[in-house]
Amino acid sequence: MASESAPEWLNKGDNSWQLAAATLVGLQSVPGLVILYGSIVKKKWAVNSAFMALYAFAVTFVCWSLWAFRMSFGDRLLPFLGRPDLAALDQRFLLAQGFAGLYPSATLVYFQFVFAAITLILIAGALLGRMNFKAWMLFVPLWLTFSYTVGAFSVWSPNGFLFKAGVMDFAGGYVIHLSSGVAGLTAAYWVGPRMAKDRERFPPNNILLTLTGAGLLWMGWTGFNGGAPYAANIDASMAILNTHLCTATSLLVWLCLDMFVFGKPSVIGAVQGMITGLVCITPAAGLVQGWAAIIMGVLSGSTPWFTMMVLHKRIRFLKRVDDTLAVFHTHAVAGSLGGILTGIFAEPRLNRLFFGDDPKYVGLAYALKMGRAAAGFRQIGMQLAGIVFIISVNVTVTTLVCLLVRLAVPLRLSDDELQIGDDAIHGEDAYAVWGDGETYERSIHGVQNFALPTTLAEAA
C-alpha cells in the first residue's frame, strides 16, 4: 500500500539515480571546474577564475528556482519559451509527479539546475583573465533568463518547437555545449582581450590540480549523460558506456596528434581532447552503438584539434577574439560535430528506448539501410536546423546582454587591475603561503630579492 511519502507513481530506484546523477553533474562544477579554472590560469588569476565559477553556480540556483526552470520546462508562452511563474517554490508542485520520470518535480528542478549552472560556468572559461567581476555578476542571471531558457525549452521541453520537430539532443550537445561555446566567443568579443603579455604567455599555475579538476569533470559526466533518460534503465547504461568510450578515444587521438606535430605529449592537450570527447558524445550518448562512439571519439579528437591548432591561426576574426580556454573549439565545434553525427549514427532501437515509438527519429546510416533515405536526410536537416537556431539565439542574446551590462559597469577590468590580478579585485591571493600571510613576491624567495639574514641574531 502506497504511503504519503511514497505515492504509487514514485519509482524509488529511478528517483535515487536521478538525484545521484544530478549531484555528479553538480560536482563537475563545484568543485570540478572551480579547481580546473583556478589552476589552469596564471597564479595572479587563480582566485578570480575559481570564484567566477562558484558565483555562477550559486546565483543560477536562485534564479532557476524563482523563474528560469518554468521558463525552460513550464507551460508554453511562445513556441520557444515557457511561461515564468513561481511554481518551483510551490510545495504542491514540487511534491507532485514531474513532466518526465517516475519521481517528483523537485527532483527535476534539481537535475535540470546543474545543467543550467555548468553552461554559465563554461561560458566563463572564455572570459577568464580580464572580465570585470561586477559585470559577470549581472551577466549570469541575464543570460540564464534570456538565452539558456530559450534553448532548453525549444529543444528539451515536450512543448518546445524543435523537440516536436524531431531534433535529437540526448543530453545537451546543443542546449549546453553549442550554446556555451557560441556565447563564450560572443561575450569574449565584447569584453575584449587580456593584456598582451597574458595572451602571449598564460601558463597554468598548477597542472596537477588542473588534472584533478579534469578528472572530476570526466567522472561527473557519468551523471551528465547517464541521467538523460530520466530513469535507471538500460539506455542509461548504454549512455554511460558510450560516454567513456568516446572520451578515452578522443583523448588518445588528440594526444597522438600533439606528439606527431609538436613532438611532446601535452597534458593540457590531453585534457582538451578529453573535453571534446565528452562534448561530442553528449547529444548521442544513449542513441548510438559502441562502434559509433569510437568513430565519434576519433573525430572529436581530430576535428576540434584542427580548428584550434590550424584554422584558428588562419581566420582573422578568431585570432582577434580572445577565447581564454578555447571554449568555442572544445564546446561549440565539438557540440555541433556531435549533433551532426547523432543524425547519422542514431540507432532505431535505441531511439525508441529514449523517444518512444516515433518513426521520425532515425539516423541516416540506418535510414539508408532500411530504404528510408528521405527520413534520414530529414533528420540531418533537423540537426542542422537546431545548430542554426542555437547559434542565432546565442549570438543575438549574448550581444544584447553584454551591451546592456556595459551600460551599468565596464565589461573589462582596468589596466591596473589587469596588471595586478586577484589582489586588486578581491583583496586575496591564491598562494599566500610564505611566512605570516606573505605572498611569494613579498617573501625572501620572491622576485624582489630581499636580503637573506647573515647571522643567527639577524634571523632572530
TrEMBL record:
Its main location: membrane. PROSITE patterns: AMMONIUM_TRANSP. The chain crosses the membrane at residues 17-38, 50-69, 109-128, 135-156, 171-192, 204-224, 236-255, 267-285, 291-312, 324-346, 380-405. Keywords: Ammonia transport, Membrane, Transmembrane, Transmembrane helix, Transport. InterPro entries: Ammonium/urea_transptr, Ammonium_transpt, Ammonium_transpt_CS, NH4_transpt_AmtB-like_dom. One of its GO terms (molecular function) is ammonium channel activity. One of its GO terms (cellular component) is plasma membrane. It is a multi-pass membrane protein. It comes from the Eukaryota. Residues 17-431 form the Ammonium transporter AmtB-like domain. It is found in: Cell membrane; Membrane. Involved in ammonium transport. NCBIfam families: amt. Belongs to the ammonia transporter channel (TC 1.A.11.2) family. This is Ammonium transporter. It comes from Ananas comosus (Pineapple).
